[in-house]
Amino acid sequence: MKTEISCGPAFALAEISVPAGGSVRVEAGAMAMMRGDISITTSTRGGFMKGLRRSLGGSSFFVNDFGSDQGGVVGVAGALPGDIVETTINEETPLLVQSGCWLASDPTVDVDSKWGGSKGFFSGAGLVLLRCSGTGEILLSSYGAIRPITLTTGETMTLDSGHVVAFDESVQYRIRKAGGWKSMILGGEGIVTEFTGPGRIWMQTRSATDLVDWLRTRMPSNSTSSNSNNS
């Protein structure tokens, strides 16, 4: 997958060159532009159950394969302002990707859901993951800039769960509270994910969860709207 990334890190756009007879797999709704001879095929890629697992993992039920007989270009972008990075995976290095951060990949890369575990789900961490396996290139998108980090064997790192983009399957992780209940309620620090190497991690400098919470505090409540209408 030959890719040119521009306009980053705030508003990144990835232009993927599709060779004659080739194709690229893209998250539904991520296409921003097309040039040249490009056709689109929409499917669940793996059947109903695999599409359902992807949708439960925060990705779309469907994926789009952009193919070309003569060669063309597909431009893709994330849903939120942020960065795009390209990385390579193989059979020995599957990648676990936070829901919403998988953007596109070679058709030889299989994208399936992997639940972050009941502890993470019931704690509200929302760490639902997509497991990307196979061999090929993959594009990751973020909210904010992306910072790659490599952990050595036994090295640990803790991230707010909203800042997780992706990590190698070789990296062990567990979800826990940032501190005690006082820190959680008064200090604004909630659920975090602790990683232990070896392996690669990609983090984003902003959290979409924090953005939603910030917007919620500034939106008029239903009672306020009702009072305004009655005035």
From TrEMBL:
Q: Which Gene3D superfamilies does the annotation name? A: Mitochondrial biogenesis AIM24 (3.60.160.10)
Stored InterPro entries: AIM24, AIM24_sf, Trp_RNA-bd_attenuator-like_dom
What name does this protein carry? TIGR00266 family protein
